[in-house]
């Protein structure tokens, strides 16, 4: 009789020879960047970080939009409908009157994922005492994970990858460590991280290997 242990991953399909293509939505939400008062640094920072963190080839779908709740919700719906497995927003998470990104994100949610916001505020405290001013949320819509990041361009890498000590050991885990497995669970592509940037974590039973 053949027995299968709880850590036997042979039941999972083998990975294709090269990492799967993934479609990722990146949304920069800023009144001033979207109207040309200053140059947008949000989209370049998001694309640069994701390109460095993933082995998967990425098709980016980009939006640079003002802080308008209905427009933000419409952009998020569009990106999910376009097949983005992951959507990252930057900006508009604070307490100012025009900061409405969390409301716009919750308005399109099937499920809220509160752990991401909790962990991001915790991580950000290692960088700035004002971390708790970000109301950022994460949600599932269809087969897509949508995550809000703060608007400061440097906050993108800070929250996604966390903080490393001078000797290279991870002092504070970034939230991206939990993203690949979350996307597995909602039926998306298998994300493969570059461990030196951010090591994705999966339970042993969810780790797939190449044939
Ligand atoms: N897309 C961006 N590109 C470059 N810098 C940005 C961007 N978004 C925000 N910043 C910087 O981070 C700061 C905090 O971001 P926040 O989202 O709170 O912007 P804001 O003050 O509401 O103004 P705006 O929406 O017009 O960018 C901004 O004041 C700006 O210095
Ligand atoms: N990692 C990180 N988190 C951060 C910050 C930052 O610089 N780095 N800025 C904080 C500040 S000052 C504010 S007001 C809130 C909300 O920022 P937002 O409105 O630009 O999204 O995010 C906070 N979180």
TrEMBL record:
Pathway: Cofactor biosynthesis; molybdopterin biosynthesis. It is an enzyme of class 2 (transferase). One of its GO terms (molecular function) is molybdopterin adenylyltransferase activity. CDD domains: MogA_MoaB (cd00886). Keywords: ATP-binding, Molybdenum cofactor biosynthesis, Nucleotide-binding, Nucleotidyltransferase, Transferase. Catalyzes the adenylation of molybdopterin as part of the biosynthesis of the molybdenum-cofactor. This is Molybdopterin adenylyltransferase. It comes from Diaphorobacter ruginosibacter.
């Amino acid at each position: 009789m053949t027995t299968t242990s709880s850590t036997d991953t042979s039941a999972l399909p083998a990975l294709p020879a090269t990492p799967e293509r993934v479609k990722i939505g990146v949304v920069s939400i800023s009144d001033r960047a979207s109207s040309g008062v200053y140059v947008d640094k949000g989209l370049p920072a998001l694309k640069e970080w994701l390109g460095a963190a993933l082995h998967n080839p990425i098709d980016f779908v980009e939006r640079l939009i003002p802080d308008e709740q209905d427009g933000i919700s419409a952009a998020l719906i569009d990106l999910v409908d376009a097949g983005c497995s992951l959507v990252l927003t930057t900006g508009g998470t604070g307490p100012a009157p025009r900061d409405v990104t969390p409301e716009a994100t919750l308005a399109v949610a099937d499920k809220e994922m509160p752990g991401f916001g909790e962990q991001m505020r915790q991580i950000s405290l290692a960088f700035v005492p004002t971390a708790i001013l970000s109301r950022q949320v994460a949600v599932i819509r269809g087969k897509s994970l949508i995550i809000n990041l703060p608007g400061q361009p440097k906050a993108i890498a800070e929250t996604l990858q966390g903080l490393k000590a001078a000797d290279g050991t991870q002092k504070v885990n970034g939230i991206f460590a939990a993203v690949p497995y979350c996307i597995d669970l909602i039926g998306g592509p298998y994300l493969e991280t570059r461990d030196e940037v951010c090591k994705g974590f999966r339970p042993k039973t969810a780790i797939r290997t190449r044939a």
